[in-house]
Design a protein that fits this description.
Low-confidence stretches: none
Mean pLDDT: 91
Number of helices: 8
Number of strands: 9
Strand order of the largest sheet: 5-8-7-6-9
Number of domains: 1
Shape: globular
Structural class: alpha/beta
CATH topology: Rossmann fold
CATH class: Alpha Beta
CATH superfamily: Nucleoside phosphorylase domain
């Protein structure tokens, strides 16, 4: 079996050839609802189907299509990664982290992880965008499990003290002062959490809940990238409001927020 880091390096080389980009500056992983908003950044000059790159697996969730779009935003080379995969689809932590590892191996030193999530804090309702200041990983796994990372990568015992870059968070909050920060709690899924689990997450200090992002963030930090997390609150979590939860609600919330998400990404690009 090919080592995950070698696989990412080989996929990065293939991405460079097919996109025509020698080195990216920023990578943005597009969560539910964010792909349409990202159109505000401009028209991609290259599009690569992730199924043609080594190590990539096919997304099975509605709203996640496997593509990497390449853009030039005022001289900044940006990779838009569409087609996130999740543990609950039956994939491993390494497979979930592979797209992020690939774009970092292709040069990206800053990684923006976006998602649609449930809101635990009743003051941050559907339609709000929240900056992740920290996370709690309740997936019971890590992309650092398994083989020792090869040189030149650091120890598997990666320090996560500044996982979500304080520098980037400060710059984003200065550029968009209407945003607030929160703690993202990552569950494995695919079922939604119970009210008791949400109460537990709240007691632990969580304000957001979802089924993605945490493994990608750990992998990106280990590879030396600065990480920024942006959450679109698509619904209140179980027990916070009386309404039942559904994935359709998540997709609809993303569609409704398309223009505002696009405007936000365009405003934030100069500080990335």
């Amino acid at each position: 079996m090919t080592h995950p880091y070698q696989l990412a390096t080989e996929a990065a080389d293939e991405l460079r050839v097919r996109s025509g980009v020698d080195s990216y500056d920023v990578a943005i992983v597009l969560g539910s609802g964010w792909k349409e908003g990202a159109r505000a950044l401009g028209t991609p000059f290259a599009e690569v189907a992730t199924g043609t790159l080594r190590g990539f697996v096919a997304p099975t969730v509605v709203g996640h299509a496997g593509q990497i779009f390449s853009l030039d935003v005022n001289g900044v080379k940006v990779a838009l990664v569409s087609g996130r995969v999740h543990l609950y689809e039956g994939y491993t932590a390494d497979q979930v982290a592979h797209p992020v590892r690939t774009v970092i191996a292709a040069g990206a030193r800053k990684v923006v992880l976006t998602n649609a999530c449930g809101g635990i804090d009743p003051t941050k309702g559907p339609g709000s965008v929240v900056v992740i200041k920290d996370h709690i990983n309740l997936t019971a796994t890590s992309p650092m499990e398994g083989d020792v990372p090869p040189a030149p990568y650091g120890s598997r015992f990666v320090d996560l003290t500044d996982l979500y870059s304080r520098r980037l968070r400060s710059a984003v909050l200065e550029a968009a002062p209407e945003l607030s920060e929160g703690v993202y709690v990552g569950f494995r899924g695919p079922h939604y959490e119970t009210p008791a689990e949400i109460a537990m997450a709240r007691t632990m200090g969580g304000t957001l809940v979802g089924m993605s992002t945490v493994l990608e963030a750990i992998a990106a930090r280990h590879m030396g990238a600065e990480v920024l997390g942006l959450c679109l609150v698509s619904n209140f979590a179980a027990g916070v409001a009386d309404a039942p939860l559904s994935h359709l609600e998540v997709l609809e919330a993303g569609q409704a927020a398309t223009s505002s998400l696009g405007e936000l990404l365009a405003r934030l690009m100069p500080v990335l």
